[in-house]
Amino acid sequence: MNDSKYIIAPSILASNFATLGEEVVNVLNAGADWIHFDVMDNHYVPNLTIGPMVCRSLRDYGVKEFIDVHLMIDPVDELAQSFIKAGADLVSFHPEASKHVHRSIHAIKDQGCKAGLVFNPASSLNILENVIEDLDLILIMSVNPGFGGQSFIHSSLEKISQVRKMIDAAGKDIRLEVDGGINNETIGLASKAGADTFVAGSAIFNTDNYEQTIKTLRSKII
């Protein structure tokens, strides 16, 4: 996992899939740290996106950088294993999509992959009391999952702050990621609340100069 204090993780959901390999290489060369996959199943969320074959295709294309897979699917376990085999470095999932959250976390970690949990804007954080020691990443959704290009939900800032306190109290090296509506205005708010890893889709891929866009995003981190 990248040791940088702050991570920019462009979401390929907003990229041009007709030239995906080229898009990913370009955004990495422009200064991105990770590549973020938003995996939707038209069941847990009302949209259908990408599967493990896309991950494998990028690895075969020559992409060696960190691939961060966010599963918005139910059930979790089988597809998590497929993404790991396809080359994912980290797989995160929503606790309500797993019947046995602890087991699902360790099924991921047992394969040498990092594991994360994802919390929607209205989801309780209570389960973290039991599993935070096992996690490599906690992802706070600042939109309701299912679609790209949504506006940032400002009440998520309090949730980010709560999780930052929990991570600090645990004394563990756990990334705190935020996903949804991240742009030049909201990345500073999220970082001030305690986030250190930022997923941005349309804010990067819908611009003409990825390098300048990523530099500007970094400059807004507080």
Q: What's the domain count?
A: 1
Spell out the helices and strands N to C.
EHEHEHEHEHEHEHEHH
Architecture in CATH? Alpha-Beta Barrel
Strand content: 15-25%
Per CATH, the class reads: Alpha Beta
Q: What form results from the Cα inertia axes?
A: globular
The named CATH superfamily: Aldolase class I
Describe it.
With 222 residues, the protein is an alpha/beta fold. It has one domain (7-219): Alpha-Beta Barrel (TIM Barrel), CATH 3.20.20. It has nine helices and eight strands. The protein has helices at 20-29, 52-61, 77-86, 101-109, 128-131, 156-170, 186-193, 202-205, 210-219; strands at 7-10, 34-40, 66-72, 90-93, 114-119, 137-141, 175-179, 197-200. An eight-stranded parallel β-sheet has the order 1-8-7-6-5-4-3-2. Helix 3 (77-86) links the parallel strand 3 and strand 4. The longest helix is centred in the last third of the chain and has 15 residues, at 156-170. It is globular. The model has no long low-confidence stretch (mean pLDDT 96).
What's a concise summary of this model?
This protein is an alpha/beta fold.
Helices and strands in order, then pairings?
Layout: E1 7-10, H1 20-29, E2 34-40, H2 52-61, E3 66-72, H3 77-86, E4 90-93, H4 101-109, E5 114-119, H5 128-131, E6 137-141, H6 156-170, E7 175-179, H7 186-193, E8 197-200, H8 202-205, H9 210-219
Parallel strand pairs: 1-8, 2-3, 3-4, 4-5, 5-6, 6-7, 7-8
